[in-house]
Specification:
Elements lengths: L4 E7 L3 H16 L6 E8 L3 H11 L3 E3 L3 H5 L5 E4 L6 H10 L3 E4 L7 H14 L3 E3 L7 H11 L6 E9 L16 H4 L3 H16 L3 E9 L4 E3 L19 E3 L5 E8 L4 E7 L8 E8 L2 E6 L5 E6 L10 E4 L20 H18 L7 H20 L3 E2 L9
Parallel strand pairs: 1-2, 1-4, 2-3, 4-5, 5-6, 7-12
Antiparallel strand pairs: 7-13, 8-11, 8-17, 9-10, 11-12, 13-14, 14-15, 15-16
């Protein structure tokens, strides 16, 4: 058996670089025969010391402190973008123009205009392009999609989604790039609400109208003195100069879908006690589906077609019988983690490259989610419903 080797260059060795590297190493162990074998060829970081350490830690053959060397390397097949949002467009466009396939972390860009340029470059180059909304790879979420598509809950009427975290509640946590508009583009909106928007589009369909509300609770934070961005693991900083926070801490929005359904989304990083409370409740005219990522192996199903004496929510514990289950663990309930969603994501990327088929979700999906996010921000400022403008040249 001959399986193609795909040479990967990763740009960024933080949390996402670690998650992606794990996936490249482990994917063939789960999905065998693999559609292609990822080869961890080169990794880039901002300094020689960080890059050298990342290569040793994550198993790369080479390292560099200049990401452009990855773009210029004729040996590289895939460029993996795992850096802050403001760097996504330059890297993705350069990679596409060099004929490299690209996977980029979410959100695709800070604004729809940036995302459109990335999409257009990828489409013009004819490369495989993917945006890393990995939570949709959770088997229970993929199962929810199949249950919707086969009519189990009937016609969808309502989508209610949440993404609640609490890691940024302390005002003495450092001024991460995630709190700075010029780097992140937005706060909870781009960072976590976009994951729920991906669920909404994946499961229900296109969002065409929004009515949003955005709030900021903490207006300044201490400026860190070097070191990597550590998210929830960051130590508090006392008696240090503080810099302004200019992004949202919480976003709420109502939604209208092209197919006639309605919905709502709430996302915040300030909900005490909620660690990664990402979920949805979807109501159809024949039943309901409920998912909570903190219980990621479970999908709740209520069917109005059940007999009256046994109606109620049933818990489906995902395992080998469910999407991706045959390739993961052999017993239901052994547990699917964040790493597995990245492994599945890697499988889908390698499969698209090997077969020459479009990846899903693509830069088109990332662009459309950014259009929706932009519309939510406009709506929050105007205090009214706003139509989502997908611009010219979008494809459904």
């Amino acid at each position: 058996m001959h399986t193609r080797t795909v040479n990967v260059g990763v740009i960024g060795a933080g949390f996402m670089g670690k998650a992606h590297s794990l996936a490249y190493a482990a994917m063939p162990m789960f999905f065998w025969p693999a559609p292609a074998i990822p080869r961890r060829t080169v990794i880039a970081e901002v300094t020689d010391e960080l890059a050298r350490d990342a290569a040793a830690r994550f198993g790369y053959e080479r390292w560099t402190s200049d990401w452009r060397r990855i773009i210029d390397d004729p040996e590289i097949d895939v460029v993996d973008i795992a850096v802050p949002n403001d760097q996504h467009p330059a890297i993705a466009i350069a990679a596409a123009q060099a004929g490299k396939h690209v996977i980029c972390e979410k959100p695709l860009a800070r604004t729809a205009a940036e995302a459109r340029a990335m999409r257009d470059a990828a489409v013009a180059a004819g490369i495989v392009h993917m945006v890393a909304f990995n939570y949709r790879r959770t088997p229970a979420v993929a199962l929810a999609k199949s249950l919707i598509e086969d009519g189990t809950i009937g016609t969808v009427r309502n989508f209610r989604g949440t993404y609640l975290q609490d890691w940024s509640n302390d005002p003495d946590l450092p001024l991460s790039w995630r709190f700075q508009r010029d780097v992140a583009g937005s706060g909870a909106l781009g960072d976590i609400a976009t994951h729920v928007l991906d669920f909404a589009r994946y499961l229900v369909g296109e969002v065409v109208q929004v009515n949003g509300l955005m709030e900021r609770y903490i207006h300044d934070r201490p400026i860190p003195q070097g070191g990597a961005d550590q998210l929830a693991g960051a130590a508090k900083i006392a008696d240090a100069p503080r810099g302004p926070v200019d992004v949202d801490d919480e976003v709420l929005t109502m939604l209208r879908f092209a197919g006639g359904a309605v919905g709502s989304i709430e996302a915040t990083r300030h909900a005490h006690g909620r660690k990664n409370f990402l979920g949805f409740e979807i109501h159809g005219d024949r039943g309901t589906l409920v998912f909570d990522y903190e219980r990621r192996d479970e999908l709740q199903l209520y069917s109005a077609d059940d007999a009256a004496d046994r109606q109620g929510f049933r818990t489906i514990l995902t395992g080998p019988a469910h999407p991706y289950g045959e390739s993961l663990w052999p017993i239901p309930g052994l547990g699917v983690g964040y790493g597995e969603t990245k492994i599945i994501e890697c499988y889908e990327l390698m499969k698209a490259i090997a077969e020459g088929t479009p990846a899903d979700p693509s830069f088109e999906d990332g662009y459309r989610i950014t259009c929706i996010a932009d519309a939510i921000a406009v709506s929050a400022q105007a205090g009214t419903w706003v139509d989502v403008d997908f611009g010219e040249g979008s494809s459904s």
